[in-house]
Amino acid sequence: MIAMELWYNLVDLLPFEWAEPGRMLFMKNALLAIILLAPIFGTLGTMIVNNQMAFFSDALGHGAFTGIVIGGLAGFLQPMWSAVAFSLVFSVGISVVHHKTRMSSDTIIGVFSSFAVAAGIFLATLGGKSFAKLNSYLVGSILSITPSEIGIIAVILVLVLIYWYFFFNRLLFASINPVLARSRGVRTFWLETLFSMAIAVLVTVSMSWIGLLVINSFLVLPAAAARNLARNQRQYHLIAVAISLFSGVSGLIASYYTETASGATIVLITAVIFLLTLLARRRSA
User: Fold this and answer.
1) Total-model pTM
2) With 90 as the cut, is the pLDDT of residue 132 above it?
């Protein structure tokens, strides 16, 4: 691919041993993937934090895990797509139950999440099967990403930006005052459902690269840190994306030299940034 060749030539200019021409293409692929993923996680994470949906995005990861298991049992060559389908159904189910009942959202999410993770483990170990083959989805490895998968991320980034351009104002309105939004003709149910589906696709597609155990932190921590510093929505989004990008790139490079899991290293750096922004907020208060 011409685009990847151009990217490799650009990375060759960096002062790192893994950036030398013709060496360690997996690091160069991972770096590009993080640069593309950072705006997605940073942007969508702002609305997750606004709507207090951190538990929801974690539950979607459990649903994606169950979808992976179902796809494997069905004999799919690419169980990831069955996971995407299951996650979409899972997210819609949570939205429907939430809007049709008077139960609190955290209770509904807890029920769905518990069912999903239990069903996934049950199916994965049915008949005495080993769970070990699924461990890669729990930890993830951004270093295993391929150029074709990077292309998928690029498409998702474009779709997210288009979605944000057309629906952000209504999403924000609904998150601030859903009752008033509905009285003004905003279809809050469909807005929330579409947003939930977007998170479901992102979590599912990224799970094998980032890891189910830490993927929720990729969505929540950059936005939470940005909220400590931002004074308006524009600053909020820009800071969240900047923190996501900085943490991703620095975490990837640090994990290479410390020989640690890249996902966990990125999350630790983001957590430190969150603590620093929290201290800065308290001092300025």
Assistant:
1) 0.86
2) no
**Residue of 132, 138, 162, 107 whose CA lies nearest to 216:** 138
Reply yes or no on whether the pLDDT at 169 is more than 70. yes
- How would CATH label the architecture of 2-284? Orthogonal Bundle (1.10)
Which residues, other chains included, contact 203 with Cβ-Cβ below 8 Å and sequence gap of 6+? Answer: 57, 60, 61, 64, 87, 215, 219
- Rounded-to-integer distance, Cα 188 and Cα 182, Å: 6
CA distances from 162 to 77, 165, 193 (A): 31, 5, 17
Dist. CA 131–CA 128, nearest whole Å: 9
Q: Taking the C-alpha atoms of 170, 171, 172 and 175 in order, what is their torsion angle to the nearest 10 degrees?
A: 120
Mean pLDDT of 110-119: 83
Angle at CA 105, nearest 5°, toward 217 and 88?
65
The residues, ordered by sequence, that sit 6+ positions from 139 with a Cβ below 8 Å of its Cβ are 211, 213, 261, 263, 264
Tell me the mean pLDDT in the region 117-128.
Answer: 81
Q: Name the residue with higher pLDDT: 171 or 32.
A: 32
Cβ neighbour number for residue 256 with a 10 Å cutoff: 18
Is residue 48 packed enough to be buried (19+ CB in 10 Å), middle (13-18) or exposed (0-12)? buried
**How far is the C-alpha of 80 from the C-alpha of 69, rounded, in Å?**
9
What residue spans define the domains of the chain? 2-284
